[in-house]
Specification:
Distance between the termini: 62 Å
Bound molecules: adenosine-5'-triphosphate
Helix content: 40-55%
Number of domains: 3
Radius of gyration: 27 Å
CATH superfamily of the largest domain: P-loop containing nucleotide triphosphate hydrolases
CATH architecture of the largest domain: 3-Layer(aba) Sandwich
CATH topology of the largest domain: Rossmann fold
Strand order of the largest sheet: 2-3-4-1-5
């Protein structure tokens, strides 16, 4: 068994620590979001008094802790409701893949513990939903994560918050919605009536800066890694160290503060001391993520990947070089994801550039891409766009960081001239394109060879 590449132990990760760097882990406190959480608390307070919470909209880009903040604060409210015997129900519902009020209403019925009324007319489905709420009674807070998936089909967003006023539900039922969205424009495009009824309060989550990301990563790292502790300072200037032992507790920092009788909100995180992370690892992960989108998810991903790379290379410490490799890999994954989501025309433009690169062509111009694009679009029987419109797709590929589009110095009459270059290896682009069913019959190497032969014949 000694020769196995697998091991039951790790020199880097604490036992059970890796979970703290995974998406599934929900933090109980988010000090960087104290202001946003206080605003949310204000919206939820009426629920603690047995009435309805305010309808609230949480917005901000991906990875800003909107979902985590909502979960943490609702858990707090639920604990209070339990202790006070309040009639309160919270439902957390992800709208991923849900593009209509109808599907959402069906999903909510199921979530509220009744049968899914799928197949019935919309009115019947809504009646089902009101019945389900009447059955439950009391305050019902429905959190709709990724609410923008609904697009403009906002019927339910109009009806649900008004269900009480309109007597759809009994007098003892107080429904409200907390909507969460990454799409800052979505709300503006809603019907004004739905917009008005949905949002009493709106809370914006601005991107994290490098210091905030460093603190978030440090807290996660103190649980995820071996021999890693946090050093805090009290308002009186006294330093103290916190060691989380996952064998002994649930990884919550609150317990550690309780034990030394300190109020966490008064203390400042000074640094992290670690035997397995070199000093620059966390600042570098934080800086990379802050430069890009300021996303905590992205920062955590860099740290997780860097540690996994160090581990797989047999290193006992995570170093700057591992973070750099992790960042490169993560960026490549993002590019691949962007490629997969392109339209057919985007795929055609990408395929044309790929074939030219495969043939060793450098300084690829729009005209060259268009020649290959034309034969490819005929080959897969797709609409053939005019050269200018195809160029727009190339520029979009540049905006998605899939290719580089450089304005060429030569310029041209009647518009700007560009040269194009892939940002990934041609083999990576081919792998993505070959998985697109319309491109099944395309042999990229063969086409590249043909193109090369043609050029040689023309010379
Ligand atoms: N202040 C924070 N402290 C600790 N972890 C955080 C913090 N903010 C975000 N995270 C973590 O970052 C990841 C992304 O956060 P979250 O899912 O809440 O983002 P979001 O704003 O809802 O974005 P999305 O809409 O893309 O899900 C999660 O793993 C979350 O636990």
């Amino acid at each position: 068994m000694d020769s196995s590449p697998y091991s039951t132990t790790s020199e880097i990760f604490a036992v059970g620590g890796e979970d703290y760097l995974k998406e599934g882990h929900t933090p109980t406190t988010l000090p960087e979001r104290q202001d946003e959480i206080l605003k949310l608390r204000r919206s939820l307070k009426p629920a603690a008094r047995g009435a309805g919470a305010e309808n609230t909209f949480l917005s901000g880009k991906a990875g800003q802790g909107k979902t985590a903040a909502a979960k943490a604060e609702l858990a707090e409210l639920e604990a209070f409701a339990d202790a006070q015997n309040l009639d309160l129900t919270t439902v957390f519902f992800s709208c991923e893949g849900i593009s209509s009020s109808y599907t959402l209403a069906c999903g909510l019925c199921e979530e509220l513990g009744t049968e899914n009324p799928n197949g019935h007319p919309m009115q019947k489905v809504l009646d089902h939903l009101w019945d389900a709420m009447n059955e439950i009674g009391g305050t019902v807070i429905i959190v709709l994560d990724e609410i923008d998936n609904l697009g403009t089909d906002d019927k339910i967003l109009y009806s649900l918050p008004r269900a009480r006023d309109k007597d759809y539900v009994n007098d003892d039922v107080y429904p409200s919605i907390i909507g969460i969205s990454n799409d800052l424009q979505w709300r503006d495009n809603l019907d004004p009536a739905a917009k008005d009824s949905l949002y009493d309060d709106s809370i914006f989550f601005a991107p994290y800066d490098a210091n905030e990301l460093r603190d978030i990563l440090s807290r996660r790292a103190s649980k995820a890694f071996r021999d890693t502790s946090l050093v805090y300072e009290t308002p009186e200037g006294e330093e103290f160290e916190i060691n989380i032992d996952l064998d002994d507790d649930d990884g919550s920092l609150a317990k550690a503060f309780d034990e030394i009788n300190a109020d966490r909100t008064d203390c400042t995180l000074l640094r992290i001391d670690s035997e397995v992370l070199s000093d620059d690892v966390i600042p570098l992960c934080a800086a990379y993520a802050a430069q890009d989108k300021g996303s905590a998810r992205q920062a955590i991903k860099y740290l997780r990947k860097a540690a996994a790379i160090a581990e797989s290379e047999g290193d006992a410490r995570v170093e700057e070089k591992h973070v750099r490799t992790a960042q490169g890999e993560a960026e490549r994954e993002l590019i691949i994801e962007g490629m997969e989501q392109l339209t057919t025309q985007g795929h055609l433009a990408l395929a044309a550039v790929t074939i030219l690169e495969l043939a060793g062509h450098s300084g690829i111009r729009t005209r060259d891409v268009y020649d290959v694009y034309k034969s490819l679009s005929d080959h897969i029987d797709a609409d053939r766009l005019a050269q200018r419109r195809m160029r727009d797709h190339l520029i979009e590929l540049d905006m998605l960081s899939i290719i580089y589009a450089r304005k060429s110095a030569s310029g041209s009459v009647g518009g700007e001239a560009y040269t194009f270059e892939l940002r990934v290896e041609p083999s990576t682009a081919i792998e993505v394109l070959e998985a697109v069913s319309r491109f099944d019959s395309i042999d990229f190497n063969e086409l590249a060879k043909n193109w090369l032969n043609e050029q040689q014949t023309l010379r």
